[in-house]
Design a protein that fits this description.
This protein is an alpha/beta fold. It has 12 helices and 10 strands. A 6-stranded mixed beta sheet has the order 1-2-3-5-7-10, with helices on both faces. Strands 4-6-8-9 form a 4-stranded mixed beta sheet.
């Protein structure tokens, strides 16, 4: 009798390793359900991203998957035991759906966006629903060129969640976002790259090498400078000019206290490559 991935411990549903370069590899591993994400998986990924933020030895994160799908949405069959309620209470009370979204899809996407280390999405299979939004929340995205991204919500009579209505308009504008969300058409990786939703759409035979190359570049980058840069860029579209300029000045002040900033300046003066440590 075959074992469902839902019966595996969460550490097997989400594979994790930190390599010798300091890259945290987080891999969704439920290919039998096309990596539809369960609450346990979601919480584990959020925890691993939080660990990456606080571990000074980690220089970057690669978020990937096994199987032919990156993530096809939330696993609606994987439910947690509900909290006790009075016998005469309704099955669903006002506010419960909003709480579920806040603590579920939104918290996961926010964890990707708020991670202090750069997050590279490695997408070699379908990304649909919340799976697409997780990918678009990554700082950098490499996709195999035969991959499809799907705003599948309208096909199911649902409103997009996981911050999609926040993420997409800021990248591709209102009209294109509405087209994708109203019709739920498949978006080929090459078109997603042309729109700016992913960085590279590469031939499948070059996918692994490209991911490894970009991960290696993140591993040798000035990690704290990237964290401050990520924060500035993510906040820029929600800030007025005065606030953005003030935050930029503060980031500069903080960064100049790092070992890497001093190493970068010293290396420039000495006309040699900089050796960044990540702090």
């Amino acid at each position: 009798m075959s074992t469902s991935s839902a019966d595996l411990p969460v550490t097997e549903q989400v594979l994790h390793r930190v390599d010798e370069q300091g890259i945290s590899w987080i891999t969704l591993n439920r290919p039998d359900v096309k990596n539809a994400i369960s609450p346990d998986q979601r919480d584990h990924v959020i925890g691993l991203l939080a660990e990456a933020s606080t571990d000074i030895g980690i220089r970057g994160v690669v978020l990937g998957h096994t199987g032919d799908a990156f993530c096809t949405g939330a696993d609606l069959r994987a439910r947690r035991e509900p909290a006790p309620r009075p016998d005469d209470a309704p099955d669903r009370t006002v506010g419960e759906v909003a709480k579920l979204i806040r603590e579920g899809a939104q918290r996961l996407v926010a964890a990707v966006m708020d991670c202090e280390k750069p997050v590279l999405g490695a997408i070699s299979g379908t990304a649909a629903g919340i799976g697409a939004h997780i990918a678009f929340a990554c700082d950098l995205v490499i996709a195999a060129d035969d991959v499809r991204f799907i705003e599948v919500f309208a096909r199911r009579g649902l409103v997009p969640d996981g911050g999609g209505a926040y993420l997409l308009p800021r990248t591709i504008g209102l009209q294109r976002t509405k087209e994708l969300m109203f019709f739920g058409d498949d978006l080929p990786a090459a078109e997603a790259a042309a729109l700016g939703l992913v960085n590279r759409a590469v031939p499948r035979d070059q996918f692994e090498a490209t991911v490894q190359e970009w991960a290696a570049r993140l591993a040798t980058a000035p990690t704290r400078a990237l964290a401050l840069t990520k924060s500035l860029v993510n906040r820029s579209l929600d800030s007025d000019r005065v606030t953005a300029f003030a935050e930029e000045a503060t980031a500069q002040e903080l960064n100049m206290g790092t070992v890497d900033a001093n190493e970068g300046v010293k290396a420039f003066v000495e006309r040699r490559p900089a050796a960044y440590r990540g702090w």
